[in-house]
């Protein structure tokens, strides 16, 4: 990892609140017994309790260890320590014993041979479990289809009085039916009920997508193989890593990290890393999951850098999710080329033609300026066309970078708006 600058350290923060709290702890008087080696940086930070928090960062990851109760990774103490290190305020020293033990254990685990992915101890039992799940999913889909048909027959008038309760019950039923993807879609439908004046139209849109997945499940055998894989994935069937590594389409390139989005909740933290091939132009998505309170795997490279390697794509009509096999160290990358607002939306429409359930799409907008749009913000191009930012998204950092000049912005688009991830000041990436 080496010595990062302040902006790169702040780019590790899971949210703006963590970054701000970390900056508040980046003062020498907050720390005792701080030190740094080629492998790690560590220190003790006094909190509200009697004992100070033990904080360490393995610089090879980076990976984080802190005795505080925070569920964020990195926590504010790790960020503060790294910011102090970036400012040259941490002196070199011999690793404390608790730091050495932790870093040695991480190095030992990294050297151990991995088990073969997808290895099954009892194939017959696995087939039986798969058959039972297929029956449960089919039963759940049939129940959901009957409920949707009833709503069409009766109509949605007065549905707002019972919608949330019924949809929540159906979502729980889909979990029981081992169809977690459909359960999530039903929960999203429940979430729009009563939200703003246009919620009936949003609800109808969400229920239409649910109905489409149910209908596709009924005709699964008639669908092209790639579309069938997409339907199974949207229902919640997972694809074994071994199958992806062996059978998945493989594309070798220098992959530009467009940006990353981290979404934590009480049970699971999800990180999406969006990539674009420098030569092929292919888009890729690296999904990483961690249980609440557990650290995510280190990023293969920082946003705005190239990571040379091979992507093995998961099957589907719109292959996006992939596994990365990194072949060389990360490299600096120039500012990427991008779309106008019109071209960006056209690319999203093309993605929906391949996968109607596609929820998110990476976009790179070129020569855009942040501008007020009603109560929110939009990115407006030279033609006066624009894309709205997500409601409530703070555009002040974009304004500070652009200073009124056009900039390049990479973001994640969904039906609610654009979530900026990275922007470029000349060729210098700024993580948002």
From TrEMBL:
<feature type="domain" description="SWIM-type">
    <location>
        <begin position="53"/>
        <end position="86"/>
    </location>
</feature>
<dbReference type="Pfam" id="PF04434">
    <property type="entry name" value="SWIM"/>
</dbReference>
<keyword id="KW-0862">Zinc</keyword>
<protein>
    <submittedName>
        <fullName>SWIM zinc finger protein</fullName>
    </submittedName>
</protein>
<dbReference type="InterPro" id="IPR007527">
    <property type="entry name" value="Znf_SWIM"/>
</dbReference>
<keyword id="KW-0863">Zinc-finger</keyword>
<keyword id="KW-0479">Metal-binding</keyword>
<dbReference type="GO" id="GO:0008270">
    <property type="term" value="F:zinc ion binding"/>
</dbReference>
């Amino acid at each position: 990892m080496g010595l990062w600058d302040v902006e790169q350290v702040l780019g590790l923060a899971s949210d703006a609140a963590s970054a701000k709290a970390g900056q508040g702890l980046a003062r020498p008087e907050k720390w005792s017994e701080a030190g740094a080696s080629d492998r790690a940086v560590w220190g003790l930070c006094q909190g509200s309790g009697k004992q100070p928090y033990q904080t360490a960062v393995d610089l090879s990851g980076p990976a984080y260890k802190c005795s505080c109760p925070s569920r964020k990774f990195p926590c504010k103490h790790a960020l503060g320590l790294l910011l102090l290190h970036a400012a040259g305020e941490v002196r070199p020293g011999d690793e404390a014993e608790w730091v050495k033990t932790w870093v040695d254990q991480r190095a030992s685990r990294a050297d151990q041979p991995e088990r073969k992915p997808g290895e099954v101890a009892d194939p017959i039992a696995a087939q039986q479990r798969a058959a039972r799940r297929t029956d449960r999913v089919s039963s759940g889909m049939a129940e959901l289809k009957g409920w949707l048909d009833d709503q069409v027959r009766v109509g949605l008038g007065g549905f707002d009085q019972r919608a949330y309760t019924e949809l929540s019950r159906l979502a729980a039923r889909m979990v029981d039916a081992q169809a977690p993807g459909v359960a999530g879609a039903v929960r999203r439908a429940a979430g729009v009920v009563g939200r703003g004046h246009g919620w009936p139209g949003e609800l109808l849109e969400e229920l239409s997508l649910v109905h489409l997945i149910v209908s596709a499940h009924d005709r699964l055998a008639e669908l092209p193989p790639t579309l069938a894989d997409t339907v199974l994935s949207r229902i919640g069937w997972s694809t074994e890593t071994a199958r992806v590594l062996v059978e998945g389409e493989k594309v070798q390139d220098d992959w530009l990290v467009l940006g990353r989005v981290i979404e934590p909740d009480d049970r699971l933290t999800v990180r999406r890393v969006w990539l674009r091939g420098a030569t092929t132009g292919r888009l890729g998505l690296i999904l990483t999951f961690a249980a609440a309170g557990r650290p995510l795997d280190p990023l293969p490279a920082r946003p705005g850098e190239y990571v040379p390697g091979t992507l093995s794509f998961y099957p589907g009509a719109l292959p996006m999710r992939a596994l990365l096999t990194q072949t060389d160290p990360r490299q600096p990358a120039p500012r990427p080329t991008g779309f106008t607002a019109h071209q960006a939306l056209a690319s999203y429409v093309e993605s929906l033609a391949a996968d109607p359930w596609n929820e998110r799409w990476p976009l790179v907008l070129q020569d855009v300026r942040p501008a007020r749009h009603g109560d929110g913000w939009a990115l407006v191009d030279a033609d006066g066309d624009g894309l709205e930012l997500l409601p409530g998204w703070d555009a002040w950092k974009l304004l500070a970078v652009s200073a009124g000049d056009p900039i390049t912005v990479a973001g994640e688009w969904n039906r609610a708006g654009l979530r900026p991830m990275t922007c470029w000041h000349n060729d210098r990436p700024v993580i948002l």
